[in-house]
Amino acid sequence: MKKIGFIGLGVMGAPMAANLLRKGYEVTVFNRTPGKADKLIELGAKEAATPAAVAKTSELIITMISNDDAIREVYYGNNGILSSLTPGTVIVDSSTISPSLVRELARDTSSKFGDFLDAPVTGSKPAAEGGTLVFMVGGNPDVVHKVSDILLAMGRKVIPMGPSGSGATAKLAHNTIVGINTAALVEGMAIAASGGIDAASFLELVQSGGASSKAAELKSQKLLERDFSVQFSLELMLKDLRLSSVLSDNLKTPTPVLETVKSLFQIADSMGLGALDLSAVAHCYEQWIDKRITNSAAHSTIAAALETPIDTTDAC
After folding, report:
1. CATH class of the domain whose range is 3-163
2. What digits encode the pLDDT tens for the residues 148-177?
3. Any idea which residues carry the catalytic annotation?
């Protein structure tokens, strides 16, 4: 498979498509917002006018879209993917969407004699740029094997999760942990700040002890520098926590910590922090304790970031 279609050129999608181009694949791209394809065209991509046009020329289609509604538009809307799908085409959706929608897409792709994999990723923007994403994949194992080389052109690992919907379920469970870990990190920092502990010393302790986590690894320096530019946006994390809440209800699985953290991110979103990195949840705690959780003199990027639109058109 050399002819690849890529739909969704946001924070994650654009660098993923760029990595495919650098590995020699022929890539046709589409984005709902004009202008996002310019840098990819410089790398050799072709731009299509509609998702249907992508489907007509591609052996494999990868979608990386922000939410369920946007996915429905791209697949089922006027000139959507499914209106022009060629038999034998493989679709890989790397968005973070509801497992029920994944199963619907798999069924409707199969009715067009195509194959569908739900293959969301973890790693956020730096991993997308570096080609070190991890794909968690739901669908036919033979199809997963068939496209694994292409996925590994964008990532470092492909983990089969089970039948259709399993990748989406795993991603929501995973991002529940990411949201909880980020909230826990910031809450611990608030306690330390209230007790007069130096933030840099406390974060060194966190990363050296039992509280160490990927959240601490990725967010410690950002918090110290008060850099809330997006690796993974707060509003997308809130979207994922809401999806996970619905899923856990459907599965009759109690999730008291999830519900608490979802409420925290809802408060942060209502404060206008949604377009910033999810670590911006720190501003909630700073308002509550009436002081910074870091003692850095660096100027916060929050004011500038709130004034500047940030692209959050796809998930991590």
Report:
1. alpha beta
2. 999 999 999 999 999 999 999 999 999 999
3. 171
pTM of the model as a whole: 0.90
Q: Would you kindly state where each structural domain of the chain is located, as residue ranges?
A: 3-163, 169-307
d(CA 37, CA 43): 10
Among the CATH numbers 1.10.1040.10, 1.10.150.320, 3.40.50.300, 3.40.50.970, which is that of 169-307?
Answer: 1.10.1040.10
Distances (CA, A) of 255 to 14, 139, 167, 259: 34, 27, 20, 6
